Amino acid sequence: MKPRNKRERLVVELSSKLPAITETQIRWGKKHCFPHNAFRCKDEMWCSECGRMWVDTTGQKEGYICCPYCGEKLEVKVSRKTKDNAVSYLTVVTTSGDFQVLRHFYTARYARKGRDNHYFIDEVCQQWITADNKETVIAKAMNMGSRGWVHTTDMSIKQSGNIYYSHSYDIDGYVYPKVKLLPILRRNGLRTSFHGITPARLIHAILGESKYAEMLLKTKQYGMLELYMYRGGLSHPWAVNICNRNGYIIKDGSMYDDYLRLLDYFHLDTHNAHYVCPKNLKKAHDKLLEKKRKIEARERMERERIERMKKEKELKRNIAVFWKRIQPFLGLQIKDEGIVICPLESVTQYYQEWKTMHHCVYNCAYYARKESLVLSAKKNGKRLETIEVNLNTFKIVQSRGVCNKDSKYHKQIIRIMENNMAEIIRRVAS
Question: Which residues pair with 54 in a beta bridge?
């Protein structure tokens, strides 16, 4: 995109005057942007830094080892891989005119066993930020998914983001330690470290987008700063002010935020330095967490007790209704061809039927269904199928064998039930 205004034209002009990446910066990037591994396969190891191989008979499968060829400290990994390709970003923070400039270099390492490493370094993006927090982006073209660069294109003015990725150019790379900052950023507390936060996001925050970023930087509450930048807010900002007044540094922002929420749970005063500034954060956090866990366990047990009482009460009511409804069918037996069909006359019999037949006649509380009569078909004392009859239509709803499958007597049982349905009708009418 062509520059459209005075600021963009100035950025394009200054960008063309920026120096190329130096050999010192490249060496630093090679050392800090990639993992350094020694891959072991049996007694053979190879270095991801120089590609050389050697025999190691110590059997070391973890920890660190020095490469006998390049002297690099390597982390030992057991693997049969012969390639170790990696991609990262190197960010150079500098200034040009009245702009804070973030230069992002795409860096790739292609390591292969037995060969020298090949590196590819290409500047793909520049973020130019003014003291009044306006940003201009110069970058190479991206693919359709905004996840890859078209390295053959020239850098040009780009929109800062799009509707899908509003921070598509906010690259979280490894920051080269020699940092040049605008005076306003130094005044607002930024030095050489970005404390694990994407550089562009932190710069925008301390230039006015964020309410607490400058305060957290200047008071060295870096643990809370990282939490604040990623969550977008502080749940108890007054607690941080109390910590600052008492010289209390929060090292683990996430745990501290959880601790403050635990204080709220127990209705403890989060305006009191006694609670807000614990001597041992982890110990205080774990103590309250264990206390909360016990309370929740008691509450869960109480809920389960009440639920059991409700189920017992409902079961007693269903049993009473079932006993009244089953009275006309007590003693009913349908016999034919050696098969005996009898109604289930108690809830206990429903349970026994469920245990033997492995279906849902008990779990789904068929005994509580007012329109259903459930019978069991047996032969020589062995259960064959469970039959459900609708007492409104006097039709067989279902007849299920073990695990809801049909037995070999299924058709015979259906025929017997249909031939004797008049007896069930007579008993309902009596």
Answer: 45
Distance CA 383, CA 381 (A): 7
Q: Is 116 exposed, middle or buried (0-12, 13-18, 19+ CB in 10 A)?
A: exposed
Name beta bridge partners: 112: 83
Distance from C-alpha of 78 to C-alpha of 427, rounded to nearest angstrom: 78
Q: Of 170, 223, 167, give the one whose Cα is nearest residue 195.
A: 223
Q: Give residue for tokens 């049996």.
A: 42
Give the SS3 label for residue 173.
coil
pLDDT at 167 over 80: no
pTM to 2 decimal places:
0.74
203 CB contacts (<8 Å, ≥6 apart)?
100, 102, 129, 185, 190
For residues 391 and 374, the answer to whether their CB atoms sit within 8 Å is no
Instruction: Please state, in angstroms and rounded to a whole number, the distance separating the CA atoms of residues 128 and 259.
Output: 39
Query: Which residues have a Cβ under 8 Å from the Cβ of 393 and sit 6 or more positions away?
Result: none
pLDDT at res. 177: 95
DSSP letter (8 states) at residue 367: G
Scan for tokens 């459900």, then name that residue. 388
d(CA 401, CA 376): 10
pLDDT tens readout for residues 347-371: 899 999 999 999 999 888 898 888 8
Q: What is the pLDDT of residues 385-430, one digit of tens each?
A: 999 999 999 999 999 999 999 999 999 999 999 999 998 898 888 7
Residues in the chain: 430
Pairwise CA distance, residues 419 & 397, whole Å: 15
